[in-house]
Amino acid sequence: MFKRIAATAAATVLAAAGLVACGSESGENAPGEGNDTVTIKIGTTDADQQAWTAFEQKAKDEGIKLNIEKFTEYPPVNPALDEGQIEVSKFQTINYQAQYNASAGKDLRIIGSGEINILGLYWKDHSSLDGIEGEEVAVPNDPSNQGRAINVLVQAGLVTLKDGAPKLTPTPADIDAAASKVSVVAVDASQTPSAYHEGRPAVINNNWLSRAGIDPASSVAADDPNSELAEPYINVFTVRAEDVDNPIYARLVEVWHSPEVTDALNKDSGGTAVQVKRDKEELNAILDKLTEEYK
User: Fold this and answer.
1) What is the pTM for the complete model shown?
2) d(Cα 251, Cα 11) in Å, to the nearest integer?
């Protein structure tokens, strides 16, 4: 439920400007034209999840019709947003968006935070880190997850980074082997469950856990969603720069944090998704810092 003041302010802005913050291709459902709802075209790769069903219904209850554009892969979403094919996206982490902005020379902005999916270290037939010293830990090798996986080990006290190593985006080459309790091998993310089933500890992305029949609650260590090291991995709502202050788009962030969506998100993730509330100024500061690192 939105705060009354925020809702009133948003309504005042729209009424005064007489703007269609969003709309279907035919221009129907435009505020200020005698209609009770607006339509927002939003892109995601997660449309089949229970959270998105709850999100769509809750948004409808709030007077927003979601026109959900379903993507099967990440790469096309940001270009579609940049070219105006969609108005908002909700699929990526700050880290992924920073990589896109840096490589494509774009300036997509963040209007609000969603959840952060906790990343865990899994070790078959173990319930703690006891005995892990000297083991080789498998971590995903893709740029979006490798640094975070290494930082899971840093937070667990298993790995020490070399002086001067990048704090948020370390690689295996940045690990001080002599000062660390475990060694690290980087593999394709799809192979981390195989390492686990072979008896080796592995940092496994959440989307591979269910496919591999691994209980998300069985991790022996995990990153702290409130840690600075986890900030790049907050999932965010993204728009073009000119829409960063659009009050209707901002309402979507509030809807995502409703109890209905949060409950569904918890079911989707097996309890590994944690809602994060950060203001857009702070989120964009993190984005800009990371973008500079990737340039």
Assistant:
1) 0.79
2) 11
The first and second tokens of residue 237, run together, are 């709502």
Beta strand spans in the chain (E):
38-44, 64-70, 88-93, 109-117, 120-122, 136-140, 183-187, 202-204, 221-222, 234-239, 273-275
Phi/psi region, residue 270 (left: phi>0; alpha: psi -120 to 50; beta: rest), is: left
Show Cβ contacts of residue 8 under 8 Å, excluding neighbours closer than 6 positions: none
Give the gyration radius of the chain's Cα atoms.
21
Domains of the chain in start order, with CATH, are 4-117+231-294 (3.40.190.10), 120-224 (3.40.190.10)
- Who contacts 288 (Cβ-Cβ below 8 Å, separation ≥6)? none
pLDDT per position as a tens digit, 153-162:
999 999 999 9
* Residue ranges in 139-294 assigned as alpha helix (H): 143-155, 192-197, 206-209, 247-256, 259-269, 280-294
Residue 129: per-residue pLDDT: 98
| 158, 134 contact by CB (below 8 A) | no
Q: Which residues of the chain have pLDDT under 50?
A: 1-34
Is there a contact between 132 and 201 (Cβ–Cβ < 8 Å)?
A: yes
